[in-house]
UniProtKB/TrEMBL annotation:
Keyword Ligase among record annotations: no
Superkingdom to which the source organism belongs: Bacteria
Membrane topology (UniProt): Multi-pass membrane protein
Annotated protein name in UniProt: APC family permease
Keywords: Cell membrane, Membrane, Transmembrane, Transmembrane helix
Subcellular location: Cell membrane
Species: Kitasatospora saccharophila
InterPro entries: AA/rel_permease1, APC_superfamily
Transmembrane regions listed in the UniProt entry: 25-50, 56-75, 96-116, 136-154, 166-184, 196-220, 240-260, 288-311, 343-365, 371-397, 409-430, 442-463
Pfam families reported for this sequence: AA_permease_2
Length: 492
Protein backbone atom coordinates (compact mmCIF):
# COMPACT_ATOMS: atom_id res chain seq x y z
CA UNK A 1 0.00 0.00 0.00
CA UNK A 2 1.27 3.49 -0.80
CA UNK A 3 2.36 5.28 2.35
CA UNK A 4 0.26 8.25 3.37
CA UNK A 5 1.63 11.04 5.54
CA UNK A 6 -1.09 10.77 8.13
CA UNK A 7 -2.91 8.02 9.89
CA UNK A 8 -6.44 7.21 8.96
CA UNK A 9 -7.83 8.36 12.26
CA UNK A 10 -7.54 11.97 13.29
CA UNK A 11 -5.02 13.04 10.67
CA UNK A 12 -2.11 12.83 13.13
CA UNK A 13 1.33 12.07 11.64
CA UNK A 14 2.60 8.52 12.07
CA UNK A 15 6.06 7.00 12.09
CA UNK A 16 7.44 6.31 8.62
CA UNK A 17 6.26 2.77 7.98
CA UNK A 18 8.09 0.34 5.76
CA UNK A 19 11.33 2.35 5.93
CA UNK A 20 13.72 -0.15 7.51
CA UNK A 21 14.99 -3.43 6.14
CA UNK A 22 16.92 -6.14 7.98
CA UNK A 23 20.29 -4.47 7.45
CA UNK A 24 19.00 -1.07 8.58
CA UNK A 25 17.70 -2.42 11.89
CA UNK A 26 20.86 -4.45 12.40
CA UNK A 27 22.91 -1.28 11.86
CA UNK A 28 20.99 0.41 14.70
CA UNK A 29 21.60 -2.51 17.04
CA UNK A 30 25.27 -3.13 16.25
CA UNK A 31 26.01 0.61 16.29
CA UNK A 32 24.53 0.85 19.79
CA UNK A 33 27.05 -1.76 20.92
CA UNK A 34 29.93 0.45 19.60
CA UNK A 35 32.23 -2.43 18.50
CA UNK A 36 35.39 -0.34 18.10
CA UNK A 37 34.95 1.34 21.48
CA UNK A 38 34.26 -2.00 23.17
CA UNK A 39 37.30 -3.61 21.59
CA UNK A 40 39.86 -0.84 22.04
CA UNK A 41 38.51 0.34 25.39
CA UNK A 42 37.31 -2.78 27.20
CA UNK A 43 38.84 -5.89 25.59
CA UNK A 44 42.31 -5.17 27.06
CA UNK A 45 40.78 -5.37 30.54
CA UNK A 46 39.10 -8.67 29.57
CA UNK A 47 42.54 -10.00 28.57
CA UNK A 48 44.00 -8.87 31.88
CA UNK A 49 41.27 -10.68 33.82
CA UNK A 50 40.76 -13.80 31.71
CA UNK A 51 44.04 -14.18 29.88
CA UNK A 52 44.21 -15.58 26.36
CA UNK A 53 40.90 -17.41 26.84
CA UNK A 54 39.00 -14.10 26.76
CA UNK A 55 37.64 -14.56 23.18
CA UNK A 56 35.55 -17.51 24.40
CA UNK A 57 33.75 -15.22 26.85
CA UNK A 58 32.36 -13.17 23.96
CA UNK A 59 31.29 -16.33 22.12
CA UNK A 60 29.56 -17.64 25.26
CA UNK A 61 27.68 -14.37 25.73
CA UNK A 62 26.62 -14.45 22.08
CA UNK A 63 25.33 -18.02 22.36
CA UNK A 64 23.35 -17.15 25.50
CA UNK A 65 21.69 -14.18 23.82
CA UNK A 66 21.02 -16.22 20.67
CA UNK A 67 19.12 -18.73 22.82
CA UNK A 68 17.18 -15.84 24.34
CA UNK A 69 16.43 -14.50 20.85
CA UNK A 70 14.66 -17.74 19.88
CA UNK A 71 11.69 -17.17 22.18
CA UNK A 72 11.95 -13.38 21.96
CA UNK A 73 11.64 -13.29 18.17
CA UNK A 74 8.97 -16.00 18.15
CA UNK A 75 6.82 -13.83 20.40
CA UNK A 76 7.53 -10.81 18.17
CA UNK A 77 5.56 -12.50 15.39
CA UNK A 78 2.46 -12.57 17.58
CA UNK A 79 2.74 -9.37 19.64
CA UNK A 80 2.51 -6.26 17.47
CA UNK A 81 2.93 -3.72 20.27
CA UNK A 82 6.11 -1.71 19.55
CA UNK A 83 6.88 -1.29 23.24
CA UNK A 84 9.40 -4.09 23.11
CA UNK A 85 10.34 -5.61 26.45
CA UNK A 86 7.66 -3.99 28.57
CA UNK A 87 4.88 -5.02 26.17
CA UNK A 88 6.05 -8.64 26.14
CA UNK A 89 6.42 -8.69 29.93
CA UNK A 90 2.98 -7.10 30.37
CA UNK A 91 1.30 -9.71 28.20
CA UNK A 92 3.26 -12.60 29.69
CA UNK A 93 3.59 -11.70 33.38
CA UNK A 94 0.79 -9.18 33.93
CA UNK A 95 0.38 -5.42 34.04
CA UNK A 96 2.10 -4.75 37.40
CA UNK A 97 5.25 -6.44 36.09
CA UNK A 98 4.78 -4.58 32.82
CA UNK A 99 4.68 -1.19 34.53
CA UNK A 100 7.85 -2.07 36.39
CA UNK A 101 9.45 -3.22 33.14
CA UNK A 102 8.46 0.05 31.45
CA UNK A 103 10.28 2.10 34.10
CA UNK A 104 13.25 -0.27 33.90
CA UNK A 105 13.34 0.22 30.13
CA UNK A 106 13.44 3.99 30.59
CA UNK A 107 16.22 3.64 33.17
CA UNK A 108 18.10 1.27 30.88
CA UNK A 109 17.96 3.26 27.68
CA UNK A 110 18.34 6.69 29.28
CA UNK A 111 21.28 5.43 31.36
CA UNK A 112 23.01 3.83 28.39
CA UNK A 113 22.45 6.97 26.36
CA UNK A 114 23.24 9.80 28.77
CA UNK A 115 26.28 8.24 30.40
CA UNK A 116 28.01 7.82 27.04
CA UNK A 117 28.25 11.60 26.63
CA UNK A 118 30.94 11.40 29.30
CA UNK A 119 32.78 8.84 27.19
CA UNK A 120 32.39 11.07 24.13
CA UNK A 121 33.94 13.96 26.02
CA UNK A 122 36.88 11.98 27.40
CA UNK A 123 37.55 10.08 24.14
CA UNK A 124 37.49 13.27 22.07
CA UNK A 125 39.83 14.94 24.54
CA UNK A 126 42.21 11.97 24.30
CA UNK A 127 42.01 11.93 20.50
CA UNK A 128 42.79 15.64 20.19
CA UNK A 129 45.69 15.23 22.61
CA UNK A 130 47.07 12.22 20.69
CA UNK A 131 46.82 13.90 17.30
CA UNK A 132 47.74 17.51 18.14
CA UNK A 133 49.27 17.55 21.60
CA UNK A 134 46.64 20.04 22.78
CA UNK A 135 44.02 19.65 25.50
CA UNK A 136 40.34 20.48 25.16
CA UNK A 137 37.85 20.48 28.06
CA UNK A 138 35.73 17.33 27.89
CA UNK A 139 32.52 19.31 28.31
CA UNK A 140 32.89 21.04 24.93
CA UNK A 141 32.75 17.89 22.73
CA UNK A 142 30.03 16.46 25.00
CA UNK A 143 27.82 19.51 24.39
CA UNK A 144 28.53 19.48 20.64
CA UNK A 145 27.67 15.79 20.66
CA UNK A 146 24.37 16.53 22.39
CA UNK A 147 23.42 18.86 19.56
CA UNK A 148 24.55 16.46 16.84
CA UNK A 149 22.66 13.52 18.35
CA UNK A 150 19.51 15.59 18.86
CA UNK A 151 19.58 16.61 15.19
CA UNK A 152 20.21 13.04 14.03
CA UNK A 153 17.20 11.82 16.02
CA UNK A 154 15.08 14.73 14.84
CA UNK A 155 15.60 13.78 11.20
CA UNK A 156 13.83 10.84 9.58
CA UNK A 157 14.67 7.25 10.46
CA UNK A 158 16.02 6.83 6.91
CA UNK A 159 18.60 9.53 7.61
CA UNK A 160 19.64 7.81 10.83
CA UNK A 161 19.92 4.39 9.18
CA UNK A 162 22.14 5.72 6.39
CA UNK A 163 24.36 7.65 8.79
CA UNK A 164 24.76 4.68 11.11
CA UNK A 165 25.52 2.43 8.17
CA UNK A 166 28.44 4.63 7.13
CA UNK A 167 29.79 5.03 10.68
CA UNK A 168 29.46 1.32 11.45
CA UNK A 169 31.28 0.29 8.27
CA UNK A 170 34.09 2.69 9.16
CA UNK A 171 34.61 1.45 12.72
CA UNK A 172 34.36 -2.24 11.85
CA UNK A 173 36.52 -1.65 8.77
CA UNK A 174 39.49 -0.42 10.82
CA UNK A 175 39.25 -3.51 13.05
CA UNK A 176 39.07 -5.78 10.00
CA UNK A 177 42.12 -4.00 8.58
CA UNK A 178 44.04 -4.70 11.79
CA UNK A 179 42.93 -8.34 11.85
CA UNK A 180 43.82 -8.88 8.19
CA UNK A 181 47.29 -7.38 8.66
CA UNK A 182 47.97 -9.61 11.67
CA UNK A 183 46.77 -12.73 9.84
CA UNK A 184 48.79 -11.94 6.71
CA UNK A 185 51.98 -11.45 8.73
CA UNK A 186 51.24 -14.51 10.83
CA UNK A 187 51.16 -12.71 14.16
CA UNK A 188 54.10 -12.29 16.49
CA UNK A 189 55.07 -15.97 16.66
CA UNK A 190 52.71 -17.70 14.25
CA UNK A 191 48.98 -18.20 14.63
CA UNK A 192 47.70 -20.43 17.41
CA UNK A 193 44.41 -21.73 18.80
CA UNK A 194 45.53 -21.66 22.44
CA UNK A 195 42.70 -19.23 23.25
CA UNK A 196 40.22 -22.07 22.83
CA UNK A 197 42.08 -24.70 24.85
CA UNK A 198 40.07 -25.77 27.94
CA UNK A 199 42.97 -24.95 30.22
CA UNK A 200 42.94 -21.33 29.07
CA UNK A 201 39.15 -21.01 29.12
CA UNK A 202 38.31 -22.60 32.46
CA UNK A 203 40.16 -20.09 34.61
CA UNK A 204 39.23 -18.09 37.69
CA UNK A 205 39.03 -14.91 35.62
CA UNK A 206 36.46 -16.17 33.12
CA UNK A 207 33.40 -15.10 35.20
CA UNK A 208 34.71 -11.55 35.08
CA UNK A 209 35.21 -11.78 31.31
CA UNK A 210 31.66 -13.06 30.90
CA UNK A 211 30.32 -10.13 32.91
CA UNK A 212 32.13 -7.70 30.61
CA UNK A 213 31.08 -9.64 27.52
CA UNK A 214 27.38 -9.47 28.36
CA UNK A 215 27.71 -5.72 28.89
CA UNK A 216 29.20 -5.48 25.38
CA UNK A 217 25.93 -6.73 23.82
CA UNK A 218 23.68 -4.22 25.57
CA UNK A 219 20.92 -2.90 23.33
CA UNK A 220 20.71 -5.79 20.87
CA UNK A 221 17.03 -6.40 21.76
CA UNK A 222 15.99 -2.96 20.49
CA UNK A 223 15.13 -4.51 17.11
CA UNK A 224 11.48 -4.86 18.17
CA UNK A 225 11.23 -1.15 18.96
CA UNK A 226 11.44 -0.44 15.23
CA UNK A 227 8.57 -2.78 14.39
CA UNK A 228 6.27 0.00 13.17
CA UNK A 229 8.96 1.32 10.82
CA UNK A 230 10.12 -2.05 9.50
CA UNK A 231 9.31 -3.62 6.18
CA UNK A 232 7.55 -6.94 6.79
CA UNK A 233 8.30 -6.84 10.55
CA UNK A 234 7.40 -10.51 11.12
CA UNK A 235 10.45 -11.39 9.05
CA UNK A 236 12.66 -8.33 9.36
CA UNK A 237 12.77 -8.06 13.16
CA UNK A 238 13.80 -11.70 13.85
CA UNK A 239 16.38 -11.65 11.06
CA UNK A 240 17.90 -8.40 12.31
CA UNK A 241 18.04 -9.76 15.87
CA UNK A 242 19.84 -12.96 14.89
CA UNK A 243 22.13 -11.08 12.51
CA UNK A 244 23.13 -8.59 15.21
CA UNK A 245 23.77 -11.22 17.88
CA UNK A 246 25.72 -13.50 15.52
CA UNK A 247 27.81 -10.66 14.16
CA UNK A 248 28.69 -9.22 17.56
CA UNK A 249 29.54 -12.59 19.13
CA UNK A 250 31.74 -13.80 16.30
CA UNK A 251 33.28 -10.40 15.54
CA UNK A 252 34.20 -9.63 19.14
CA UNK A 253 35.80 -13.06 19.62
CA UNK A 254 37.65 -12.86 16.30
CA UNK A 255 39.08 -9.39 16.93
CA UNK A 256 40.24 -10.22 20.46
CA UNK A 257 41.86 -13.42 19.15
CA UNK A 258 43.72 -11.54 16.41
CA UNK A 259 45.06 -9.01 18.93
CA UNK A 260 46.34 -11.92 21.00
CA UNK A 261 48.13 -13.18 17.87
CA UNK A 262 49.54 -9.70 17.27
CA UNK A 263 51.47 -9.82 20.58
CA UNK A 264 51.75 -13.55 21.16
CA UNK A 265 50.05 -15.83 23.65
CA UNK A 266 52.69 -15.32 26.31
CA UNK A 267 53.21 -11.58 25.83
CA UNK A 268 49.71 -10.11 25.32
CA UNK A 269 48.67 -10.01 28.98
CA UNK A 270 51.86 -8.19 29.96
CA UNK A 271 51.31 -5.71 27.11
CA UNK A 272 47.72 -5.12 28.26
CA UNK A 273 48.92 -4.57 31.83
CA UNK A 274 51.57 -2.09 30.72
CA UNK A 275 49.29 0.03 28.50
CA UNK A 276 45.65 -1.18 28.34
CA UNK A 277 44.43 1.93 26.55
CA UNK A 278 47.10 1.66 23.90
CA UNK A 279 46.96 -2.08 23.22
CA UNK A 280 45.01 -1.82 19.97
CA UNK A 281 46.72 1.38 18.83
CA UNK A 282 50.18 -0.10 19.27
CA UNK A 283 49.13 -3.23 17.38
CA UNK A 284 47.71 -1.36 14.39
CA UNK A 285 50.71 0.99 14.35
CA UNK A 286 53.03 -2.00 14.10
CA UNK A 287 51.09 -4.09 11.60
CA UNK A 288 49.50 -1.39 9.43
CA UNK A 289 51.14 1.97 10.10
CA UNK A 290 50.99 5.15 12.15
CA UNK A 291 48.33 6.59 9.86
CA UNK A 292 46.00 3.74 10.79
CA UNK A 293 46.55 4.39 14.51
CA UNK A 294 45.66 8.04 13.96
CA UNK A 295 42.57 7.00 12.01
CA UNK A 296 41.55 4.61 14.78
CA UNK A 297 41.69 7.49 17.26
CA UNK A 298 39.23 9.44 15.10
CA UNK A 299 36.98 6.43 14.51
CA UNK A 300 36.72 5.84 18.26
CA UNK A 301 34.92 9.18 18.43
CA UNK A 302 32.62 8.39 15.50
CA UNK A 303 31.92 4.96 17.04
CA UNK A 304 30.72 6.66 20.21
CA UNK A 305 28.57 9.07 18.18
CA UNK A 306 27.00 6.12 16.35
CA UNK A 307 26.23 4.40 19.65
CA UNK A 308 24.67 7.58 21.03
CA UNK A 309 22.47 8.05 17.96
CA UNK A 310 21.31 4.43 18.04
CA UNK A 311 20.38 4.62 21.73
CA UNK A 312 18.79 8.05 21.23
CA UNK A 313 16.50 6.69 18.52
CA UNK A 314 15.57 3.64 20.58
CA UNK A 315 14.89 5.74 23.68
CA UNK A 316 12.74 8.19 21.72
CA UNK A 317 10.59 5.33 20.50
CA UNK A 318 10.23 3.93 24.00
CA UNK A 319 9.13 7.39 25.12
CA UNK A 320 6.65 7.55 22.23
CA UNK A 321 5.19 4.14 23.11
CA UNK A 322 4.82 4.98 26.80
CA UNK A 323 3.21 8.34 25.99
CA UNK A 324 0.68 6.51 23.80
CA UNK A 325 0.06 4.14 26.71
CA UNK A 326 -0.65 7.08 29.03
CA UNK A 327 2.30 6.37 31.33
CA UNK A 328 4.20 9.45 30.17
CA UNK A 329 2.84 12.92 29.23
CA UNK A 330 0.83 12.85 26.02
CA UNK A 331 3.05 15.54 24.44
CA UNK A 332 5.91 13.02 24.21
CA UNK A 333 3.81 11.08 21.71
CA UNK A 334 3.91 13.80 19.05
CA UNK A 335 5.44 12.89 15.71
CA UNK A 336 7.02 15.40 13.37
CA UNK A 337 4.79 15.93 10.31
CA UNK A 338 7.71 16.04 7.86
CA UNK A 339 10.45 13.83 9.30
CA UNK A 340 7.97 11.45 10.94
CA UNK A 341 10.20 11.15 14.01
CA UNK A 342 9.13 11.17 17.70
CA UNK A 343 10.73 14.58 17.97
CA UNK A 344 9.23 15.73 21.29
CA UNK A 345 10.43 12.58 23.00
CA UNK A 346 13.84 13.22 21.44
CA UNK A 347 13.89 16.80 22.71
CA UNK A 348 12.93 15.65 26.22
CA UNK A 349 15.74 13.13 26.49
CA UNK A 350 18.25 15.61 25.02
CA UNK A 351 17.27 18.19 27.64
CA UNK A 352 17.56 15.57 30.38
CA UNK A 353 20.98 14.58 29.07
CA UNK A 354 22.05 18.22 29.05
CA UNK A 355 21.00 18.62 32.68
CA UNK A 356 22.80 15.46 33.81
CA UNK A 357 25.99 16.32 31.91
CA UNK A 358 25.93 19.89 33.28
CA UNK A 359 25.47 18.67 36.86
CA UNK A 360 28.39 16.25 36.62
CA UNK A 361 30.56 18.93 35.01
CA UNK A 362 29.64 21.51 37.67
CA UNK A 363 30.53 18.99 40.38
CA UNK A 364 33.97 18.49 38.84
CA UNK A 365 33.24 14.80 38.16
CA UNK A 366 35.43 12.71 35.91
CA UNK A 367 33.64 12.15 32.57
CA UNK A 368 34.72 8.51 32.32
CA UNK A 369 34.93 7.04 35.81
CA UNK A 370 31.91 8.90 37.12
CA UNK A 371 29.58 10.24 34.41
CA UNK A 372 29.98 7.23 32.13
CA UNK A 373 30.32 4.41 34.63
CA UNK A 374 27.93 5.65 37.32
CA UNK A 375 25.14 6.44 34.86
CA UNK A 376 25.70 3.54 32.45
CA UNK A 377 25.95 0.77 35.02
CA UNK A 378 22.35 0.93 36.34
CA UNK A 379 21.20 1.22 32.71
CA UNK A 380 23.08 -1.90 31.70
CA UNK A 381 21.83 -3.84 34.73
CA UNK A 382 18.27 -2.75 33.95
CA UNK A 383 18.49 -4.06 30.40
CA UNK A 384 19.90 -7.44 31.49
CA UNK A 385 17.10 -7.69 34.08
CA UNK A 386 14.58 -6.90 31.34
CA UNK A 387 15.99 -9.69 29.19
CA UNK A 388 15.49 -12.11 32.07
CA UNK A 389 11.89 -10.96 32.66
CA UNK A 390 11.16 -11.19 28.93
CA UNK A 391 12.51 -14.74 28.81
CA UNK A 392 10.16 -15.67 31.66
CA UNK A 393 7.24 -13.96 29.92
CA UNK A 394 7.49 -15.95 26.67
CA UNK A 395 6.37 -19.40 27.92
CA UNK A 396 3.71 -17.80 30.14
CA UNK A 397 2.20 -16.00 27.15
CA UNK A 398 2.17 -19.04 24.86
CA UNK A 399 0.82 -21.35 27.56
CA UNK A 400 -2.36 -19.26 27.74
CA UNK A 401 -2.83 -19.38 23.96
CA UNK A 402 -3.29 -22.94 22.72
CA UNK A 403 -3.27 -23.39 18.99
CA UNK A 404 -0.58 -20.76 18.42
CA UNK A 405 1.19 -23.00 15.93
CA UNK A 406 4.68 -22.67 17.41
CA UNK A 407 6.75 -25.61 18.61
CA UNK A 408 7.74 -26.29 22.23
CA UNK A 409 11.40 -25.69 21.42
CA UNK A 410 10.69 -22.03 20.61
CA UNK A 411 8.04 -21.36 23.23
CA UNK A 412 9.20 -23.37 26.24
CA UNK A 413 12.65 -24.96 25.98
CA UNK A 414 14.64 -22.05 24.57
CA UNK A 415 13.01 -19.39 26.81
CA UNK A 416 13.51 -21.55 29.90
CA UNK A 417 17.16 -22.16 29.01
CA UNK A 418 17.60 -18.45 28.32
CA UNK A 419 16.09 -17.59 31.72
CA UNK A 420 18.60 -19.86 33.48
CA UNK A 421 21.52 -18.47 31.48
CA UNK A 422 20.45 -14.85 31.93
CA UNK A 423 20.04 -15.38 35.68
CA UNK A 424 23.63 -16.52 35.71
CA UNK A 425 24.67 -13.55 33.55
CA UNK A 426 22.94 -11.08 35.85
CA UNK A 427 24.57 -12.64 38.89
CA UNK A 428 27.99 -12.49 37.20
CA UNK A 429 27.57 -8.82 36.37
CA UNK A 430 26.45 -7.95 39.90
CA UNK A 431 29.13 -10.11 41.52
CA UNK A 432 31.87 -8.51 39.41
CA UNK A 433 30.43 -5.00 39.33
CA UNK A 434 33.72 -3.50 40.51
CA UNK A 435 35.33 -4.55 37.21
CA UNK A 436 32.82 -2.44 35.32
CA UNK A 437 32.80 0.61 37.59
CA UNK A 438 36.09 0.75 39.47
CA UNK A 439 34.06 2.40 42.24
CA UNK A 440 33.87 1.84 45.98
CA UNK A 441 31.68 -0.83 47.54
CA UNK A 442 29.20 1.82 48.70
CA UNK A 443 28.83 3.35 45.25
CA UNK A 444 28.48 -0.09 43.66
CA UNK A 445 25.76 -1.06 46.13
CA UNK A 446 23.81 2.10 45.32
CA UNK A 447 24.17 1.51 41.57
CA UNK A 448 22.91 -2.06 41.94
CA UNK A 449 19.97 -1.20 44.22
CA UNK A 450 18.67 1.42 41.78
CA UNK A 451 17.41 -1.37 39.51
CA UNK A 452 15.14 -3.28 41.96
CA UNK A 453 14.01 0.06 43.40
CA UNK A 454 12.83 1.26 39.98
CA UNK A 455 11.14 -2.09 39.28
CA UNK A 456 9.31 -1.93 42.63
CA UNK A 457 8.29 1.68 41.98
CA UNK A 458 6.77 0.61 38.68
CA UNK A 459 4.77 -2.17 40.32
CA UNK A 460 3.48 0.23 43.00
CA UNK A 461 2.60 2.77 40.32
CA UNK A 462 0.64 0.09 38.48
CA UNK A 463 -1.43 -0.64 41.56
CA UNK A 464 -2.10 3.07 42.00
CA UNK A 465 -3.03 3.44 38.32
CA UNK A 466 -5.41 0.48 38.53
CA UNK A 467 -7.39 2.39 41.16
CA UNK A 468 -7.09 5.99 39.98
CA UNK A 469 -6.85 5.61 36.18
CA UNK A 470 -8.41 2.23 35.39
CA UNK A 471 -8.76 3.03 31.68
CA UNK A 472 -4.97 3.56 31.38
CA UNK A 473 -4.27 0.41 33.37
CA UNK A 474 -6.69 -1.66 31.26
CA UNK A 475 -5.10 -0.75 27.92
CA UNK A 476 -1.47 -0.81 29.05
CA UNK A 477 0.64 -3.14 26.90
CA UNK A 478 -2.35 -4.12 24.77
CA UNK A 479 -2.17 -4.79 21.07
CA UNK A 480 -2.49 -1.67 18.86
CA UNK A 481 -5.76 -1.03 17.07
CA UNK A 482 -5.76 -2.07 13.43
CA UNK A 483 -5.53 0.74 10.93
CA UNK A 484 -5.46 0.82 7.14
CA UNK A 485 -1.80 1.85 6.96
CA UNK A 486 -0.58 -0.79 9.36
CA UNK A 487 -0.03 -4.24 7.84
CA UNK A 488 -1.88 -6.79 9.96
CA UNK A 489 -0.06 -10.10 10.37
CA UNK A 490 -1.88 -13.17 9.22
CA UNK A 491 -3.63 -15.26 11.83
CA UNK A 492 -1.58 -17.98 13.42
Amino acid sequence: MTETPHSAAGGAPTLRRGSLGTADIAFFVVSAAAPLTVMAGVAPLALLIGGVGAPVGYLAAGVTLAVFAVGFTTMSRHVRNAGGFYAYITQGLGRPAGFGAALLALLGYLGMNIGVFGLLGSATRDTVRALTGHDVPWLLPALIGLLVIWYGGFRSIDFGAKLLGVLLLAETGILVLLAAAVLIEGGAHGLSAHSFAPGNVLTGGMPGVLAMAFAAFTGFESTVIYRREARDPDRTVPRATYLAVAFLGVFYAFVVWTVIQAYGDTEVVAAAAQDPGGLFFTAIDRYVGAWAADLMHVLIVTSILASLLAFHNATSRYGLALAEEGLLPRALGRIHPRHRSPYVSGIAQSVLALVVVAVFAAAGADPYTQLLLWVNTPGMLALVALQLLAALAVPCWFRRRPGHGEGALRTVVAPAAAAVLLTGALWLVVDHIELLTGASATVNLVLILIVPAVLAAGVLYALRTRTRRPEVYARFGAEPAESPDVPVPSAV
